[in-house]
């Protein structure tokens, strides 16, 4: 088969592979995708074992990911924490057979160039659903380059990414990741005494955005 570009070729590979997985294992209700250039943390499977049930009970979720896009070394310090995000994080993730059966017939055609992960993030494909991610990633991108990112840029992006080296981590409050409970906790934070709302029209990057003597 001739592809218009690398993105379309990779997308076709993912579609074919996921179909092969669920066809080969008809009793499997979920699958984990782990690319060949990823290193897995010691608790990689434990992480998914503790979170996979959320996909069965919460229809507002479409994946569990082992990767946090914003998990840089200077801000990610809590391997037991989880979040919900409105995107597909990738780099080691789990989906259900039900979700794959839904997206398989409408998977973007390999006759036009595209990125499968960008397509999967589309609001029409996600249908408003979210993904669970960890504060500290459970995978590390070990390749020097990829289809869209090369050498030095890849190193700059991935080397500063936090990954846990601990085993047997017990995730905290996994049940609070269910949408109703998660939003309840968010509103609790936003309505607490620790929140200060700034009445300003300044851009957040402005030098004077925060008032003086403000902690």
TrEMBL record:
It is found in: Golgi apparatus membrane. Pathway: Protein modification; protein glycosylation. It is a single-pass type II membrane protein. It is an enzyme of class 2 (transferase). Its cofactor is Mn(2+). The keyword Oxidoreductase does not apply. Initiates complex N-linked carbohydrate formation. Essential for the conversion of high-mannose to hybrid and complex N-glycans. This is Alpha-1,3-mannosyl-glycoprotein 2-beta-N-acetylglucosaminyltransferase. The gene is POMGNT1_10.
């Amino acid at each position: 088969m001739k592809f218009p570009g690398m993105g379309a070729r990779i997308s076709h590979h993912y579609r074919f592979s996921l179909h092969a997985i669920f066809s080969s294992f008809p009793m499997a209700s979920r699958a984990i995708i782990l690319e060949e250039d990823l290193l897995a943390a010691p608790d990689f499977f434990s992480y998914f074992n503790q979170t996979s049930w959320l996909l069965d009970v919460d229809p507002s979720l479409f994946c569990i990911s082992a990767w946090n896009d914003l998990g840089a070394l200077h801000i990610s310090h809590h391997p037991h924490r989880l979040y919900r995000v409105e995107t597909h994080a990738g780099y080691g993730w789990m989906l259900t057979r039900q979700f794959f059966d839904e997206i398989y017939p409408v998977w973007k055609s390999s006759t036009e160039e595209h990125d499968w992960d960008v397509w999967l993030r589309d609001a029409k494909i996600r249908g408003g659903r979210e993904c669970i991610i960890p504060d500290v990633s459970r995978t590390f991108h070990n390749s020097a380059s990829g289809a869209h990112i090369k050498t030095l840029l890849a190193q700059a992006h991935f080397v500063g990414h936090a990954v846990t080296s601990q085993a047997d981590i017990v995730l905290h409050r996994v049940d609070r990741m269910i949408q109703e409970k998660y939003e309840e906790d968010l509103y609790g934070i936003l309505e607490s005494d620790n929140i200060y709302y700034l009445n300003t029209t300044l851009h957040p990057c402005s030098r004077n955005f925060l008032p003086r003597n403000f902690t």
